[in-house]
Amino acid sequence: MYNYLEYFLAALFIVLGVLLVWFLVNMKKIKKL
Amino acid sequence: MNLSLFMLVMIVMTCNLISIIFLTPMVPDQEWAQKIFYLHVPIAWSGFLSYFFVMLSGVAYLISRNLKYDRIGHAAAEIGTIFTGLVLLTGPIWATPIWGKPWIWEPRLVTTLVLFVIYVGYFILRNVGIYRQRVALISAMIGIIAFLDIPIIFMSVNFWAAEIQSHPQVEMNKQPSGILTPFLFSLFAFTSLMLTMLFLKIKVLYLEDKEKNYV
Predict the structure, then answer these.
(1) Helix (H, G, I), strand (E, B) or coil at B104
(2) Which residues of A touch B94 (CB under 8 A)?
(3) I want to staple B31 with a disulfide (CB 3.0 to 4.6 A). Which of A3, A13, B63, B152 is the partner?
(4) What is the pTM (predicted TM-score) of this model?
Protein backbone atom coordinates (compact mmCIF):
# COMPACT_ATOMS: atom_id res chain seq x y z
CA MET A 1 0.00 0.00 0.00
CA TYR A 2 1.41 3.35 -1.07
CA ASN A 3 1.36 5.85 1.84
CA TYR A 4 2.26 9.24 0.21
CA LEU A 5 4.79 10.01 2.96
CA GLU A 6 7.02 12.03 0.61
CA TYR A 7 4.18 14.44 -0.20
CA PHE A 8 3.61 15.17 3.47
CA LEU A 9 7.35 15.63 4.12
CA ALA A 10 7.65 17.96 1.10
CA ALA A 11 4.78 20.13 2.39
CA LEU A 12 6.15 20.10 5.95
CA PHE A 13 9.70 21.08 4.97
CA ILE A 14 8.51 23.82 2.62
CA VAL A 15 6.38 25.36 5.39
CA LEU A 16 9.11 25.08 8.05
CA GLY A 17 11.82 26.27 5.63
CA VAL A 18 9.94 29.40 4.53
CA LEU A 19 9.05 30.31 8.14
CA LEU A 20 12.64 29.73 9.30
CA VAL A 21 14.07 31.97 6.56
CA TRP A 22 11.51 34.67 7.44
CA PHE A 23 12.46 34.56 11.12
CA LEU A 24 16.21 34.62 10.39
CA VAL A 25 15.88 37.62 8.04
CA ASN A 26 13.75 39.62 10.48
CA MET A 27 15.83 38.74 13.56
CA LYS A 28 18.89 39.96 11.64
CA LYS A 29 17.10 43.21 10.74
CA ILE A 30 16.16 43.80 14.40
CA LYS A 31 19.77 43.29 15.48
CA LYS A 32 21.06 45.63 12.75
CA LEU A 33 18.60 48.47 13.40
CA MET B 1 9.70 41.27 20.97
CA ASN B 2 8.96 39.45 24.18
CA LEU B 3 11.32 36.45 24.20
CA SER B 4 9.14 34.35 26.51
CA LEU B 5 6.16 34.80 24.15
CA PHE B 6 8.34 33.66 21.26
CA MET B 7 9.54 30.61 23.19
CA LEU B 8 5.95 29.77 24.18
CA VAL B 9 4.82 29.86 20.54
CA MET B 10 7.78 27.68 19.51
CA ILE B 11 6.81 25.10 22.16
CA VAL B 12 3.17 25.16 20.98
CA MET B 13 4.31 24.71 17.36
CA THR B 14 6.59 21.81 18.31
CA CYS B 15 3.71 20.10 20.17
CA ASN B 16 1.53 20.75 17.13
CA LEU B 17 4.01 19.07 14.76
CA ILE B 18 4.37 16.09 17.10
CA SER B 19 0.57 15.83 17.27
CA ILE B 20 0.23 15.99 13.46
CA ILE B 21 2.94 13.42 12.78
CA PHE B 22 2.35 10.91 15.58
CA LEU B 23 -1.12 11.36 17.07
CA THR B 24 -3.50 12.05 14.18
CA PRO B 25 -5.27 9.03 12.67
CA MET B 26 -4.41 7.78 9.19
CA VAL B 27 -7.30 8.27 6.77
CA PRO B 28 -7.74 5.32 4.38
CA ASP B 29 -6.84 6.03 0.70
CA GLN B 30 -5.10 9.34 1.50
CA GLU B 31 -2.73 8.16 4.28
CA TRP B 32 0.04 10.77 4.85
CA ALA B 33 -1.29 13.08 2.13
CA GLN B 34 -4.34 13.78 4.32
CA LYS B 35 -2.04 15.11 7.07
CA ILE B 36 -1.09 18.03 4.79
CA PHE B 37 -4.61 19.26 5.63
CA TYR B 38 -3.47 20.01 9.24
CA LEU B 39 -0.93 22.44 7.79
CA HIS B 40 -2.81 23.73 4.75
CA VAL B 41 -6.13 24.78 6.35
CA PRO B 42 -4.70 26.49 9.51
CA ILE B 43 -2.16 28.35 7.33
CA ALA B 44 -4.99 29.51 5.05
CA TRP B 45 -7.06 30.64 8.05
CA SER B 46 -4.10 32.52 9.60
CA GLY B 47 -3.31 34.18 6.27
CA PHE B 48 -6.89 35.36 5.86
CA LEU B 49 -6.95 36.63 9.46
CA SER B 50 -3.78 38.54 8.70
CA TYR B 51 -5.45 40.14 5.66
CA PHE B 52 -8.36 41.06 7.92
CA PHE B 53 -5.87 43.05 10.02
CA VAL B 54 -4.64 44.74 6.81
CA MET B 55 -8.22 45.83 6.13
CA LEU B 56 -8.78 47.06 9.71
CA SER B 57 -5.51 48.99 9.80
CA GLY B 58 -6.33 50.41 6.34
CA VAL B 59 -9.59 51.82 7.72
CA ALA B 60 -7.76 53.10 10.83
CA TYR B 61 -5.15 54.80 8.64
CA LEU B 62 -7.76 56.49 6.44
CA ILE B 63 -9.45 57.90 9.55
CA SER B 64 -6.38 58.88 11.56
CA ARG B 65 -3.58 59.31 8.93
CA ASN B 66 -1.23 57.89 11.56
CA LEU B 67 1.72 55.94 10.06
CA LYS B 68 1.49 53.49 12.95
CA TYR B 69 -1.53 51.91 11.24
CA ASP B 70 0.32 51.79 7.94
CA ARG B 71 3.10 49.78 9.61
CA ILE B 72 0.56 47.37 11.11
CA GLY B 73 -1.08 46.98 7.67
CA HIS B 74 2.28 46.48 5.95
CA ALA B 75 3.38 43.84 8.49
CA ALA B 76 0.04 41.99 8.28
CA ALA B 77 0.11 42.12 4.46
CA GLU B 78 3.58 40.58 4.37
CA ILE B 79 2.64 37.75 6.72
CA GLY B 80 -0.67 37.19 4.93
CA THR B 81 1.13 36.94 1.60
CA ILE B 82 3.72 34.48 2.94
CA PHE B 83 0.90 32.33 4.37
CA THR B 84 -1.17 32.54 1.18
CA GLY B 85 1.96 31.59 -0.78
CA LEU B 86 2.37 28.55 1.48
CA VAL B 87 -1.29 27.64 0.92
CA LEU B 88 -0.70 27.81 -2.84
CA LEU B 89 2.33 25.49 -2.43
CA THR B 90 0.92 22.93 0.02
CA GLY B 91 -2.40 22.70 -1.88
CA PRO B 92 -0.85 21.39 -5.12
CA ILE B 93 1.39 19.00 -3.12
CA TRP B 94 -1.80 17.46 -1.67
CA ALA B 95 -3.65 17.59 -5.00
CA THR B 96 -0.91 15.82 -6.99
CA PRO B 97 -1.61 12.35 -5.53
CA ILE B 98 -5.30 12.90 -4.67
CA TRP B 99 -6.67 14.71 -7.75
CA GLY B 100 -3.94 13.35 -10.01
CA LYS B 101 -2.81 16.82 -11.02
CA PRO B 102 -1.40 19.74 -9.02
CA TRP B 103 -3.73 22.49 -10.19
CA ILE B 104 -7.19 22.75 -11.64
CA TRP B 105 -8.99 25.99 -12.51
CA GLU B 106 -11.58 25.61 -9.81
CA PRO B 107 -13.31 28.61 -8.09
CA ARG B 108 -11.61 28.41 -4.69
CA LEU B 109 -8.16 27.95 -6.21
CA VAL B 110 -8.61 30.77 -8.70
CA THR B 111 -9.98 33.24 -6.11
CA THR B 112 -7.06 32.43 -3.77
CA LEU B 113 -4.58 32.94 -6.61
CA VAL B 114 -6.26 36.28 -7.42
CA LEU B 115 -5.83 37.35 -3.77
CA PHE B 116 -2.14 36.41 -3.88
CA VAL B 117 -1.59 38.32 -7.13
CA ILE B 118 -3.36 41.43 -5.73
CA TYR B 119 -0.93 41.40 -2.80
CA VAL B 120 2.08 40.90 -5.07
CA GLY B 121 0.87 44.12 -6.73
CA TYR B 122 0.53 45.72 -3.28
CA PHE B 123 4.22 45.06 -2.54
CA ILE B 124 5.35 46.24 -5.98
CA LEU B 125 3.43 49.46 -5.28
CA ARG B 126 5.03 49.89 -1.86
CA ASN B 127 8.45 49.80 -3.50
CA VAL B 128 7.94 52.16 -6.45
CA GLY B 129 9.43 55.05 -4.48
CA ILE B 130 6.65 57.60 -4.11
CA TYR B 131 6.67 59.48 -0.83
CA ARG B 132 5.79 57.71 2.41
CA GLN B 133 2.34 59.15 3.19
CA ARG B 134 1.15 58.61 -0.41
CA VAL B 135 2.26 54.95 -0.30
CA ALA B 136 0.45 54.55 3.02
CA LEU B 137 -2.77 56.05 1.63
CA ILE B 138 -2.83 53.91 -1.54
CA SER B 139 -1.81 50.77 0.41
CA ALA B 140 -4.65 51.33 2.89
CA MET B 141 -7.15 51.56 0.00
CA ILE B 142 -5.79 48.42 -1.71
CA GLY B 143 -5.85 46.57 1.62
CA ILE B 144 -9.55 47.38 2.04
CA ILE B 145 -10.51 46.53 -1.56
CA ALA B 146 -8.43 43.30 -1.63
CA PHE B 147 -10.17 42.04 1.48
CA LEU B 148 -13.44 41.81 -0.50
CA ASP B 149 -11.93 38.73 -2.18
CA ILE B 150 -11.81 36.77 1.10
CA PRO B 151 -15.60 36.34 1.59
CA ILE B 152 -15.68 35.26 -2.08
CA ILE B 153 -13.02 32.59 -1.35
CA PHE B 154 -15.02 31.36 1.65
CA MET B 155 -18.29 31.27 -0.28
CA SER B 156 -16.77 29.95 -3.52
CA VAL B 157 -17.56 26.34 -2.58
CA ASN B 158 -21.29 27.19 -2.37
CA PHE B 159 -21.32 30.09 -4.79
CA TRP B 160 -20.41 28.30 -8.01
CA ALA B 161 -22.06 25.19 -9.47
CA ALA B 162 -21.20 21.91 -7.76
CA GLU B 163 -20.06 20.34 -11.07
CA ILE B 164 -17.05 22.64 -11.32
CA GLN B 165 -15.92 22.07 -7.70
CA SER B 166 -13.26 19.62 -6.71
CA HIS B 167 -12.80 20.92 -3.19
CA PRO B 168 -13.63 18.62 -0.29
CA GLN B 169 -17.03 19.82 0.94
CA VAL B 170 -17.16 17.91 4.21
CA GLU B 171 -17.93 20.27 7.07
CA MET B 172 -15.56 20.28 10.03
CA ASN B 173 -18.23 19.39 12.60
CA LYS B 174 -18.96 16.20 10.66
CA GLN B 175 -15.33 15.04 10.93
CA PRO B 176 -14.56 12.31 13.47
CA SER B 177 -13.18 13.65 16.78
CA GLY B 178 -9.76 12.05 16.20
CA ILE B 179 -9.33 14.57 13.38
CA LEU B 180 -11.18 17.56 14.84
CA THR B 181 -9.14 17.98 18.06
CA PRO B 182 -5.65 18.02 16.47
CA PHE B 183 -7.06 20.22 13.70
CA LEU B 184 -8.33 22.80 16.22
CA PHE B 185 -5.00 22.65 18.05
CA SER B 186 -3.16 23.23 14.78
CA LEU B 187 -5.49 26.17 14.07
CA PHE B 188 -4.59 27.65 17.46
CA ALA B 189 -0.84 27.01 16.95
CA PHE B 190 -0.68 28.64 13.51
CA THR B 191 -2.83 31.60 14.63
CA SER B 192 -0.49 32.27 17.58
CA LEU B 193 2.53 31.89 15.27
CA MET B 194 0.99 34.42 12.87
CA LEU B 195 0.36 36.92 15.73
CA THR B 196 3.97 36.51 16.97
CA MET B 197 5.28 37.13 13.46
CA LEU B 198 3.02 40.19 13.25
CA PHE B 199 4.44 41.69 16.46
CA LEU B 200 8.00 41.01 15.30
CA LYS B 201 7.40 42.57 11.87
CA ILE B 202 5.69 45.66 13.29
CA LYS B 203 8.77 46.21 15.46
CA VAL B 204 11.11 45.80 12.44
CA LEU B 205 9.06 48.31 10.42
CA TYR B 206 8.95 50.73 13.36
CA LEU B 207 12.75 50.61 13.65
CA GLU B 208 13.10 51.12 9.88
CA ASP B 209 10.79 54.14 9.95
CA LYS B 210 12.68 55.52 12.93
CA GLU B 211 15.96 55.23 11.05
CA LYS B 212 14.45 57.19 8.13
CA ASN B 213 13.03 59.80 10.57
CA TYR B 214 9.37 59.09 9.84
CA VAL B 215 8.62 58.47 13.53
Answers:
(1) coil
(2) 7, 11
(3) A3
(4) 0.93
